[in-house]
Amino acid sequence: MMTGRREFLQVGVAATGGLLLSWSIPIAMRPAGAAGGTGRIFAPDAFIRIDRQGLVTLVMPMVEMGQGTYTSLPMLLAEELEVPLEQVRLEHAPANDKLYANAILHVQSTGLSSSIRAFWTPMRQAGAVARTLLIAAAAKQWQIEPSRCSARGGRVFETGTQRSSGYGQLVETAATLPVPAADQVPLKNPGDFRLIGLPAHRLDTPEKINGTAKFGIDVQVPGMRVATLAQSPTFGGKVASVNESAALAVKGVRQVVRLDDVVAVVADHMAAAKKGLQAAAIQWDNGPNANVSNADVIRQLEAASKQPGVVARNEGDAQRALTGAHQRFDAIYHAPFLAHATMEPMNCTVHVRKDGCDIWVGTQAPTLTQDLVAKLTGFPRESVQIHNHLIGGGFGRRLEADGSVLATRIAQHVDGPVKVMWTREEDIQHDMYRPYYVDRLSAALDAEGNPVAWTHRVVGPSIVARYLPPLFTNGLDFDAIEGAAQPPYAFPNIHVDYVRVEPPGIPTAFWRGVGPTHNVFVVETFVDELAHAANRDPVEFRKPLLAHNPRALRVLSMAAEKSGWGKPLPKGQGRGISLQFAFGSYLAQVAEVEVASKGSLRVRRLVTTVDCGTVVNPNTVAAQMEGGSLFGLTAALYGSITLRGGRVEQSNFHDYRPLRINEAPVVETHIVPSAEAPGGIGEAGTAIVAPAVANAIFAASGRRIRTLPFGA
Amino acid sequence: MPYPININGTTHHVDVDADTPLLWVLRDVLGMTGTKFGCGMALCGACTVHLDGGAVRSCVMPVSAAVGKSITTIEAVSELPLGRALQHSWQELDVVQCGYCQSGQIMSAVALLARQPQPTDADIDAAMSGNVCRCGTYQRIRAAIHHAAAAVPGKNP
């Protein structure tokens, strides 16, 4: 459907040299002179463009999937550039590692809660460079020293006079000036911040509440067909037979694409495609993984957990300390496979032409997508255009390009553009899953109840070895052991190792909260066991172990204080606490639960304290604590993907249950004021919640949980 | 034979099978993508629209059942006073995160306030528990519904 919006997109492309589509600008904000495209646009770097109307465009290196980066990165830029936040419009960056790589992950990738950490300095520098040039341009026009000028509210002012000039009037001159090196321009003193650290409303709300936001699944291209697909129900199986004529007999069905391992039905609309796929009555050859079950995976991991792994940390002599200890504790923990189940099911729109192809998709990893599609098609990378979109839930799923590759394989057989949409069932049954982990721990207390030994063995697949091979060093997966190798506590004897096991028949990938989602659960529930064994209050037990770690001690103490820790609760209710350092941020959380006599559980309240260093948008920090914890709570309560006969047993929201509003606890967030370097917050809230709730369940009922989900 | 369906005050004639879900008529036939696909089984509420003012899941509503009824989608919700009030509250309280479920959340919330202008927490639970949000914005959804209800005072029938 060609709408006013689409016309604007075309205008935007013409006016900005064909960089990419814009997504966010309301029509009312369209710059009056944009259609001409003759004005010189000031573009001192890959992030900023300012036109003659003074409209600032930020080319966003990171993608928005709910975490608030489309508000917080513009805040960094606007702070240094001295423009009102509302004056910044956003565009999705094109795929380009050279220009837009994330300094933490070394590729253009939105993951690992790294947006603020990676762009805290570069984004401010980009704003400061532009501000410096605009001031220099004004000084040049006015023939005065730049030191006599200052910038504020999108204008440059001459000190002591009434003279001022809007940025739009300065861009032509600014564009002729030599661009200073980013690290040579002065950044604002934090005391002068007027955006950073203050709550800002999200910039992406208006279009997300009136139906105009464009997610990948909303793409419409002239001449586009839609398709849906069936992949082999077992991983590695093949298509045995397809009733193509029955599918083609369905009204609206145009084509059946049969590949080795997948069948797609191309149609006028999704309902016809689904009906056609059903009519196709596909038979499968189940292949080598036809008999894989969860029990096999667990047996393999448990067997591996008895062998020593690659040492991640070794201080003192934990084995000796265990042997001679007053009291010894041993435990084995299980964390299940999990699907991502993003609200927006997987989808990708592809147009394969003779000389290249276009990919319309919401992706956390545009350059990876471009690389893999180029490899598949044989086109040079620059002939594969990635048009990125808003993401209707990422959670790590859209760090993977498997969906875009599969959609391209289908599109290679289709004349014209095709939008390939996964059904919810395909989305859940052909995810790449959070791995199943088995953790084996031992610890010892001395006669006074102080921990004297701690050993932790993490057993599971390595996503890093597949996804980020340069970061898989000496057999160690930094992600699989995050939260295990460096627990917040000082243990006099500690030994942590990692055993890599790759169970066959099920693909694995990053999942929101990554390594810490299982390690923090393991560490914090085991510490809680030790506290109870030592007959000590769980908060008081932890404190002496944090004497070296003031930031951790502070969030812990604050969580206890804010939650009313220690105040009596009615029978059947309990509080549990957890503590974590991950993604560069310190968190503590107190969960309050009620366990009814028949065993049913209600999580009533979560009180979270967070020290994530310098805060950009406190509103976002609170939202991420709320949302991250509910995401983690869903998994802790219900999340489990199981294999039987090589097939994923779950298929939709009835058997892969999401938390609903009637089950949602109150979440309170308290932010510790801090001038430390910024930490990540998108994933932190997901990892902290399961141990807080598990420990609260123990406090309420005496039931100790070592296997997730709680109902398992 | 094309089915005449009235969407946001305009009648469209759509030539599809009788059992075609309204969702795909909206999204793929008419290009109105504000209404979202989430599950296809009325389990998540992302596809919620109004049929004669009541919230329905368009992913399981056959187009033939919508003939002769008045359909309202998120694209026209701002024409309703309650729609505007809820959009305003959603903005003030920064409810959205990824935003994918929010069309359906707002449509369900409008239908709730039309029925119960001053809902209790239990009313909100009952009316909104069919709308899943994987980002976990429930607390703010609850607060925003109360916020809008306070701004548009009315008595429960």
Keywords:
heterodimer; A: 712 residues; Aldehyde Oxidoreductase, domain 4; seven-stranded mixed β-sheet; five-stranded mixed β-sheet; 26 strands; globular; disordered N terminus; B: 157 residues; alpha+beta; DNA polymerase, domain 1; 2 domains
Task: Write structural notes for this entry.
The complex is a heterodimer of chains A (712) and B (157). Chain A has 712 residues and is α+β, with helices and mostly antiparallel strands. Chain A is built from 19 helices and 26 strands. A seven-stranded mixed sheet of chain A has the order 9-10-7-17-14-15-16. Chain A has a five-stranded mixed sheet with strand order 12-20-19-18-13, sandwiched between helices. The radius of gyration of chain A is 27 Å and the shape is globular. The two termini of chain A are 48 Å apart. The N terminus of chain A is likely disordered. Chain B is an alpha+beta fold and 157 residues long. Chain B folds into two domains: 74 residues, Roll (Ubiquitin-like (UB roll)), CATH 3.10.20; 75 residues, Orthogonal Bundle (DNA polymerase, domain 1), CATH 1.10.150.120. Chain B is built from five helices and five strands. A five-stranded mixed sheet of chain B has the order 2-1-5-3-4, with helices on both faces. The radius of gyration of chain B is 15 Å and the shape is globular. Chains A and B meet through helix 6, helix 8 and helix 18 of A and helix 1, helix 2, helix 3, helix 4 and helix 5 of B.
